[in-house]
Amino acid sequence: MTAPSKAQSKTIKIGSRKSRLALWQTRHVAALMEEAHDDLDVEIVTMDTLGDKILDKSLPEIGGKGIFTAELEQALMSDAIDLAVHSLKDLPTDLPEGLKYAGSPERATATDSLISTKWSCIDELPEDAIIATGSIRRRAELLARHPTFEFRDLRGNIGTRLEKLDKHGFDAIVMATAALERLEMHDTITCELPADQYVPAVGQGAIGIEIREGREDVEALLAPILHEETVAAVTAERVVMNRLEGGCSVPLGAHCRRTDDGGWRLDAWVGSKDGQRVLHETLTGDDPRAMADEAVATLVDKGARSILGHE
């Protein structure tokens, strides 16, 4: 059997942010698709998002939802690209009309990691430790367990954040483990933060693929690279975020994964920004979506909306 000619090949355009991590994720998706389809040519189209352009303000100050996705979504809607690749934790659960979350390849590590050149684990940090992070969730989860920690805002790409650790004399910074692993910077990690204590962001460690509704041709191309277990887990997490109206501007985490006995475990966490009011629900079962619904109902009954500022 001869290889398909160029005339027979199908070209698909994938939209990506320009950061090193974003391009790693996009190239990973492209490689998976090309491996699954011999007759496919992939073109990567890069662009800057609002979140990439404004680095001197915190994420909530910029505007919260969609700051890393809007420009890619505009390209999707205009057919300038066929699909967009995101860090799933950046993809809102309420998408523009006509767009949909199409799924994810297999998820990487979902945890957060502590990076420090002064201390070997989080329990060694002094009571007045200065921690740098741009995440309200990470700050609130740390404050809930270490109420005397001090915090500094941290934005920029992975390399820039690591440079600031020593430059500004921080005791530690906190970042997603998956980002460091994907960029082959695992040796910078001092310790991973346990996901059952420091519940990760919704979708953390997963790549999110977004497409236009009605693009059955694109869905058919994506089908072989999607990971069923990952999609089930992150879909449950996104239900928690959607039902609690969460996003970058509120302290909310959800993490769903398989257990050793073949079932599922879901941790859902909400807290006040100062870490003084915290709710944490843990459920096990066989249906991630049903577990997400139950977790939300319990959290709402216990006052989650008030804690998150929705009442």
Blueprint of the fold:
Blueprint (H helix, E strand, L loop, with lengths): L9 E7 L3 H17 L3 E7 L3 H4 L5 H4 L7 H8 L5 E5 L11 E5 L8 E4 L14 E3 L3 H10 L4 E3 L5 H10 L4 E5 H6 L8 E3 L13 E6 L3 H7 L5 H16 L8 E7 L5 E8 L6 E8 L2 H14 L2 H4 L4
Parallel strand pairs: 1-2, 1-3, 6-7, 6-8
Antiparallel strand pairs: 3-10, 4-10, 5-8, 5-9, 11-12, 12-13
Helix pairs in contact: 9-10
Detailed description of the structure:
This protein is of the alpha/beta class. The protein has three domains: 6-108 and 205-227, 3-Layer(aba) Sandwich (D-Maltodextrin-Binding Protein, domain 2); 112-193, D-Maltodextrin-Binding Protein, domain 2 (3-Layer(aba) Sandwich); 241-307, Porphobilinogen deaminase, C-terminal domain (Double Stranded RNA Binding Domain, 2-Layer Sandwich), CATH 3.30.160.40. 32% of the residues lie in helices and 23% in strands. It has eleven helices and 13 strands. The protein has helices spanning 20-36, 50-53, 59-62, 70-77, 136-145, 158-167, 177-182, 216-222, 228-243, 288-301, 304-307, and strands at residues 10-16, 40-46, 83-87, 99-103, 112-115, 130-132, 150-152, 172-176, 191-193, 207-212, 252-258, 264-271, 278-285. It has a five-stranded mixed sheet, sandwiched between helices. A five-stranded mixed sheet has the order 7-6-8-5-9. A three-stranded antiparallel sheet has the order 11-12-13, with helices on both faces. Strand 1 (10-16), helix 1 (20-36) and strand 2 form a beta-alpha-beta unit. The chain is globular and about 65 Å long.
